[in-house]
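INTERNAL AUDIT FORM
Audit reference: QA-55
Scope: verify that the stored structure record matches its stored sequence.
Auditor: D.O.
Record contents follow.
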Amino acid sequence: MIAEQATVRYVEPAELQHSPCSRLSKGEEQILDDVNRRVGACESLDGILEFLANSLSEVSPCDRFSLAFIEEQGARAVSRFTYAFYDPVVLKTGYVEDIEGSSLKTVLGRRVPRVISDLSAYYAQSPHSRSTRLLLREGVASSLTCPLCVDGRVVALLFRSSRISNVYDDHQVALQLAITERLSQVIEKSYRIEQLAQANQAYFEMLGFVTHELKSPVSSMITEATLLRDGYLGELQATQRERVGKMIEKGQYLLTLVNDYLNLAQLEGNNQQQANFAEGIDLASQVLAPAIEIVRPQIQSKHMVLEENIASDLPTARIDAALIKVVLVNLISNAVKYGFPKGTIRVSADYAEEHRIAVWNEGPGFPEEQQDRLFRRFSRLNTPELMKEKGTGVGLYSCWRIIQMHAGRITARSKHGEWAEFTFTLPSHLSR
């Protein structure tokens, strides 16, 4: 055991292994056995930690129990779980503190437990410690901190605190070390999942920001170029019009790309994303017709034939019209992009126990063995005919997500080399 300050000490685990203080009572052994059982049963991390907080309060000093993950390559501690037997809690879950300049740096560097026997005295020595100041406001007087290591590095810190000073002796350190040993499996999994979730969230936030910032200037460039091509700013020579037309085509492709990724960012960036359902939506006039008008210029540019088979007696639906319009624009745009020039596109809608909407086109279609690649994020069909066209691989996935939000189904079928059809259904409980 090594004392570094009068109120802070760091305990070498090796010194406790053969010490009488490391022997646990029957009650403490029972708590550890229960932890093992809960870990084996794959109980949630929060459930196990809450059980520990309540159990430890009965056999040892424990007014507050918390867990923090170590992030940014050991530079920061982020509170992941907090359980206290008093109110108010000031230092809450989500609290962040830098490791540099804190006594936690020694805990991480030497991978040893830290005991603060008198928090008031410690704060007098380290007045810069914001976490200590907050804990003192809660009435905490002493604390015990244990590192939890995975693959040779500290990934989490387990804290136990008391409103009584000088209560954490070597026996309590031994108990805390035994607890962290049994928690390693579940905390490692939780740590990995949270790191992935945070990275995924940050990625989609960045994606949404970048695509949103690109959308307006790209749209503006297309508008300006269209005015120039159409002679509103003066007549152009044939060669100049052709070059400007190519600029518009490239800008429209870029805008499609931006819209695809913006839709994806909005759907994926928030796991709680919900459809804004509205009653009495007329699919024909409020969704199908506007979607077709959006894509009509693309249809005309490839001299394709559009057939509309929309049933006249479609019942209204309870849907998010904006999201379903995104699905239709995506499907019709794909029919144009991958369809044969001068070929036929057919948009159908009918109702028989559920709404059924289909988009069919003459085109290369896809081989049956590649059907499983559809509706997956960033996945494209690997056929020579389809790979000639630029694509994001996210449009159909976004369609799938939206239809899932509506409790519907989306499917595809094709005769390779001749046609393809994409169909989605909306369940009857959405109809009115």
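Auditor finding: record pair retrieved intact. Residues 257 and 391 are 8 Å apart (CA to CA).
Action required: none
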